[in-house]
Amino acid sequence: MRVFVLDKNLQPLDPTHPARARELLQKRRAKVYRRYPFTIVLQDRTTEGSVTHPHRIKIDPGSKVSGFAIVQEETGRVTNALEVSHRGQQIKDSLESRRALRRGRRNRKTRYRKPRFLNRTRKSGWLPPSLESRLANIETWVRRIRRLCPVAAISQELVRFDLQQMQSPEINGVEYQRGELFGFEVKEYLLQKWDRKCAYCGAENVPFEIEHILAKSKGGSNRVSNLCLSCHSCNQAKGNKPVEEFLKKKPDVLKRVLAQAKAPLKDATAVNATRWELYKRLQCTGLPVEVGSGGRTKFNRKTRGIEKHHWTDAACVGASTPEKLLINGVKPLVIKAKGHGKRQRCGTDRYGFVIRHAPSQKFFMGFQTGDLVKADILTGKYAGTYTGRIAIRFKPSFKLTTGGKNFDVHPKYLKTIHRADGYEYAS
Predict the structure, then answer these.
(1) What share of the chain is helix, strand, coil (3-state, %, to 5)?
(2) CA-CA distance, 254 to 264, in Å (whole number)?
(3) pLDDT above 90 as % of the chain
(4) What domains sit in the chain, N to C, each tagged with a CATH number?
(5) Average per-residue pLDDT for the chain
(6) Candidate from 84-93, 284-293, 339-348 with smallest mean pLDDT
(7) Beta carbons of 198 and 238 less than 8 angstroms apart
(8) How far apart are CA 371 and CA 367, in angstroms?
(9) pTM
C-alpha cells in the first residue's frame, strides 16, 4: 500500500513507499496532510521539478460494496485500493419510517381531505435516494483520489458485448456470439444469486456446476429462472429427477429453492439501474472512461490467478488490465459511509409525536460528532491513551467510543486526528 504525496502547492505527485514516507517525515521534509487515506505534503518539492507517471482509477461498482484500485499503467502496480460500503438500505429504511409517520399523522389531522396525486414532478435523470447515495459515494472518492494522485484515465465495470471480431476476424456464427468469455456472464449472475453456495446441500468453496432445476430432458429450458448452482455430487445424484422428488425429504430446502429460483436480484437490479448514470457522471470529469463487462473482469482475474475481492475485481476491470498485476503487499482501506448527520430538527416517538429537539449548533469547543480523536487521559478510572470517535454534547463532557466500549471524557484531553467527513475508516 503506497502513501499519497502532494507537493508544497498541494499538487499530486506519484505515491511513494511507506518506508520512504517515514524517512521524509523523520527528516522534517514532509508533514502529514491527511490521515485517511494517509497523505503527506512535501515542504521542498513542486511538480515543475518532478516526474509523475499516469495512473488509472479502476472501479467495480456494487450494490453494497464498491471496489477501487489505483493502477500505475506503465508498471502494472496497484498502488492503492479502497472498499467503500454503501448505506442504500439504511436510507431506504429511514425513508419508509418517515413515510409511515407522516401518513399516520396526516390521517389523524386531515381525515376528510380529498387525496391529492401527481402534484410533484421529478427532474430528468432522477434516481431514488438509496441509489443516488451509491453514485454520490463513488463520485466523492473519484474526486478525492484525483486530488491526491496524478490520474489520467478511469475504468468502470459496465455490462456490454465484447467485440470479438476485432480480435479474430475469422470468427463467425455461434462462435462469434460466444467468444472467449462464453459462460462467464451467466455463471457470475448465478454465483451472486445463490450466494456462492450449492442450492441443494449448501456447500461452499467447491467447484460449482450450472444445474437445471427442471431437467432439459423433462422439458426444462435454459432460462436463468430455471438455473441454479450445484456441487458435482448433488448434480449427479439429482440427474433428471424432478426437484420435488429429489428434495422430498428436505421440505425446507425445497421451499427455499423454489422461492429463490424466481426471486429478483435486488442488488443486481440496483447496479443495473445506476451503471449508465454513473458512466455519464464519470465522463463529466473530462478523463477518458473505459468500460468492461463483468465477464471480462472475471476472465482477467482467473487468467492472472488472483483471489476474488472487491478491490481485486476493480483492478481487473477492462481491456487495459496489464498482463501482470503487481498486488503484493496491498491491503485495502475499508471505508463505510455514515452520512453527514440529520436535517431533522426534532425527534419523535414510534407514533410520530415530538419528544425532543436538536440544537441548532453543529460544533462545540472545536469538535463535532463523528470526529476521530486521540484521548490522553491522565487520571481517573479511564486513565490512559485511546483513539476513537466522539459524540458531542453541548457541555464539556463528550462521549468517546473506542474498542467496543464508550465513556465520557472532557474535551481538554482530546486531540483531533481526522475530521468527520461522512465516512468511517478501518485498515
Answers:
(1) 35, 25, 40
(2) 18
(3) 50
(4) 3-49 (no CATH), 184-266 (1.10.30), 359-420 (2.30.30)
(5) 87
(6) 339-348
(7) no
(8) 7
(9) 0.76
By DSSP bridging, strand 151-157 and strand 55-60 are parallel
Lowest mean pLDDT among 40-44, 391-395, 415-419: 391-395
Name the least confident of 206-220, 339-353, 391-405.
339-353
DSSP state of 114: P
Residue 91's identity, in one-letter code, is I
Q: What percent of the chain has pLDDT over 70?
A: 92
* Beta strand pairing call for 3-6 and 423-426: unpaired
Dist CA 338 CA 283 (whole Å): 27
Strands, sheet with 372-377, edge to edge from the N-terminal-most edge strand: 405-409, 398-402, 384-391, 372-377, 414-418
> Comparing C-alpha atoms, which of 48, 50, 45 is closest to residue 14?
50
Least confident residue range of 1-15, 60-74, 97-111: 97-111
Which pLDDT tens digit goes with each residue over 37-71?
999 999 988 878 788 999 999 999 998 999 999 99
Reported for 319-322, long-range contacts at CB under 8 A and 24+ positions apart, including other chains, are: 319/290, 319/292, 320/56, 320/73, 320/153, 320/155, 320/290, 322/71, 322/73, 322/76
Distance CA 57, CA 80 (A): 10
| 333-337 and 30-34 strand pairing | unpaired
Q: Which three cell numbers stand for residue 22?
A: 517515514
The pair phi, psi for residue 115, each rounded to 5°, is -60, 140
Residue 360 exposed, middle or buried by CB count within 10 Å (0-12, 13-18, 19+): exposed
- Single-letter residue type at 2: R
Q: Which residue has the cell 472545536?
A: 366
